[in-house]
Amino acid sequence: MLEVKNVTGGYDSKPVVKNINFRMNAGEVLGIIGPNGSGKSTLLKFIYGSLQPEKGKIFIDNKPLAAFTQKNLAKKIAVLPQQAESAFSYTVRQVVELGRYPHQKGWFSSNSKKDEEIVYQAMKETGVLSFADQPIDLLSGGEKQRVLLARALAQEPDILLLDEPTNHLDISYQLNLLDTLKEWTKSKQLTVVAVLHDLNMAAMYSHRILLMDQGNQRALDKPAYVLERSLLEKVYHARLQRKEHPSFPSPLITLEPLKNVSELSSDLLDTLSINEREEAVCITSPFYWKTLSSAVIGEGFGWHRFFVNRHVDKNYNCDNPAEEYASYLQNISLDTADTAGMMTAALLKDGAFVQLKDDEGDILVYATAGTSNAVDVSKAYEKESLPFTVGTINIWIFVDGKLTEAAYAQVMMTATEAKSKALLDNSIIDSDTGTAATGTSTDSMLIAASQQGKEFVYGGTASPLGKKVGKAVYDAVSETLENYKQRKKENGKWE
Ligand code: ADP
Ligand code: MG
Predict the structure, then answer these.
(1) Is the C-beta atom of 401 inside 6 A of ligand 1?
(2) N or C: which end of the chain has fewer CB within 10 A?
(3) How high is the pLDDT of residue 385?
């Protein structure tokens, strides 16, 4: 058990650590984060007793630090300092063996069988066995770091203090080290206090995080509470975003470049150039738009500046449409990474563009519709199978503004409702059930926002953005359906 109580202190009269308080139980990982010079390393020095605080006390197993001899303290606490001391001429094994010193009786006692076994295990767990007999000064920074960790481990401490332990490590060793530490907290009931530079690593591996700011304890809590955007922006003086990790329950902090302002200031929708051909409609932008889509190419969230709606035969059938589409893009010299691409069997000349501009922000909607596979979604469950043909209603919505993730979800919802209403008002029927169709079996949608200028937090029907999306999508889908119907009337043929 480690307790830090009202600890204040520094190097001369000026305290660089101010009134720090926390208590840790066995098996816990505490991550310490904070800008350079915020007192993180100094706080660790207080905890391992190399520096005395001016005020406050540190307790280990309820005993004040001062009550421990240096050797007894070393049985309790091991340290991996920020600046690795140079231990030239020692071999790796000798360095790790130094970790056994606190457990040995006299000054010159030799290593026991038990010591040897522990040294071996420590080297094995940190992956340094293969260079056990090499001089440590010949190793790379990362390898040295692992040797020092092995030494700390050989000390068999209850508490391990680490000061930026992942600094010299490549990402795989960073993960390895932190995974190993977390594992030790369980298997050895090890308590870990780690100063970590990388906020995301701190979030993934710490039970709690202590955020320091100019010596003060700014926050001490679970990562989800401490890694809060406005707090971090204040403490670090940086622009950042808080996301959620895609596959692990942990926050994810992403940084934004200081200069993120586009040269293009006026109407961003006007910078889009539209190229309509029979085989594809391409919209090209001079900058990247943040998109959320169900496109074949560039699905999910992404950043794109080419938008392709490609006409394919209604019997288009392919095992791997994404691969086939990518080679199509290569043929027309578009970079797949920069492209959001959809397909449709609908004729592109029936497509419709609707632009709505007002003081509340501008949007552009593009839609194409083929309704041969129109379906009533409420009855789809009762059908045996739905055609995976590419009939399809494709809808693109460009918004000149910044959307939150919630706004993307709401715009998607609003647009889907508007599409269904357009189908209803145009009497599109599910041919199997004879009921009103709500869409087709393979519809796609894309929402692209410039992520510059006005911020939209909502895109639901009640919001100014939602109202425009509702109208523009309804009008665009209605218009493309009308074109489709008109042509059908003219040549008596559905595509
Ligand atoms: P961090 O580890 O958060 O980057 P430190 O604890 O190393 O910060 O430093 C906190 C403050 O104490 C800084 O202003 C630093 O300049 C000062 N400091 C650090 N070490 C010493 C030292 N040995 N003597 C005097 N001042 C120091
Ligand atoms: Mg430091």
Answers:
(1) no
(2) N
(3) 74
Which ligand 1 atom lies nearest to the CA of residue 82?
2
Which residue's CA is the nearest one to ligand 1's atom 1?
Answer: 37
Atom of ligand 1 nearest to the CA of 42: 6
Same domain, 95 and 212: yes
Ligand 1 center to residue 42 CA distance, Å? 6
Q: Which residue owns the Cα nearest ligand 1 atom 7?
A: 41
81 lines ligand 1 (CB under 6 A): no
Closest Cα to atom 6, ligand 1: which residue?
A: 39
Q: Which residues of 288-306 are buried (b: 16+ CB within 10 A; e: fewer)?
A: bbbbbbebbbbbeebebbb
Nearest atom of ligand 1 to the alpha carbon of 36: 4
One domain for residues 215 and 350: no
Q: Do residues 229 and 362 share a domain?
A: no
CA nearest to 74, candidates 189, 178, 151, 173: 151
Q: Which atom of ligand 1 is nearest to the CA of 34?
A: 3
pLDDT tens column, 173-191: 888 889 988 998 999 899 9
* Mean pLDDT of the region 438-452: 94
Let me know whether 352 and 227 are in one domain.
no
- Position 495 scores a pLDDT of 45
Contact 69 CB / ligand 1 (< 6 Å)? no
Whether residue 29 is contained in a domain is answered as yes
Same domain, 103 and 45: yes
40 lines ligand 1 (CB under 6 A): yes
Q: How far apart are CA 141 and CA 136, in angstroms?
A: 10
Question: Could you tell me if 179 and 147 are in contact, meaning their C-beta atoms sit under 8 angstroms apart?
Answer: no
Contact 392, 346 (CB under 8 A): yes
The helix or strand, by DSSP H or E, that contains position 187, with its residue range, turns out to be helix 171-187
Tell me whether residue 263 is in a domain.
Answer: no
Does residue 244 surpass a pLDDT of 70? yes
CA-nearest residue for atom 15, ligand 1, is: 37
Greater model confidence, 125 or 310: 310
Asked whether the predicted pLDDT for residue 65 surpasses 80, the reply is yes
State mean pLDDT over 79-104. 83
Structure token pair of residue 135: 């001089």
Q: What is the pTM of this model?
A: 0.80
Domain holding 121, by residue range, is 2-255
- 161 and 296: one domain? no
Q: How many CB atoms lie within 10 A of CB 386?
A: 13
